[in-house]
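Q: Sequence in, structure out?
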Amino acid sequence: MAVEIPPSGTRGARGAPTGPVGRVIMGVARRFHRLTGNKMGGNPLLYLTTVGAKSGQRRTSAVMAFPDGDDAWLVVGSRGGSAKNPAWCYNIAAHPDQVEVEFDGRKTAVTPRVLTGDERAAAWQRITGEQHNFAEYETKTDRQIPVIRLTAR
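A: Exactly. Output:
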């Protein structure tokens, strides 16, 4: 199963820190979100666990989730409108068979699929209707922000 992430852009906002600093910040953020009901901006958070494309290490990121039917979620690789995709996108592409989510306290193995064409356009319209900041991120970068559907296996 191949997962192809749209390429990085040439311009965009400054993304969140990466590497060891980013992992520390994400760890603090995960603990904070768990204490406050696993929500951000009124939307539920999903804990996405991937295997590092380069490191081979398991990595967990808190991402905003958009439930999409039974046992499926949409996630957005916005990185705040950065020119680069978030590392977890590349991890998904490198190891699509090793992706797991935790949602509402339940861990589930998932199959990722990057949405394209009309399907992505419809999902993007829904997402930006619920969370206006994603539309703003799109104006900051020249890359196509990936929308990935995660379906429980």
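The domain at 19-152 is CATH 2.30.110.10 (Pnp Oxidase; Chain A).
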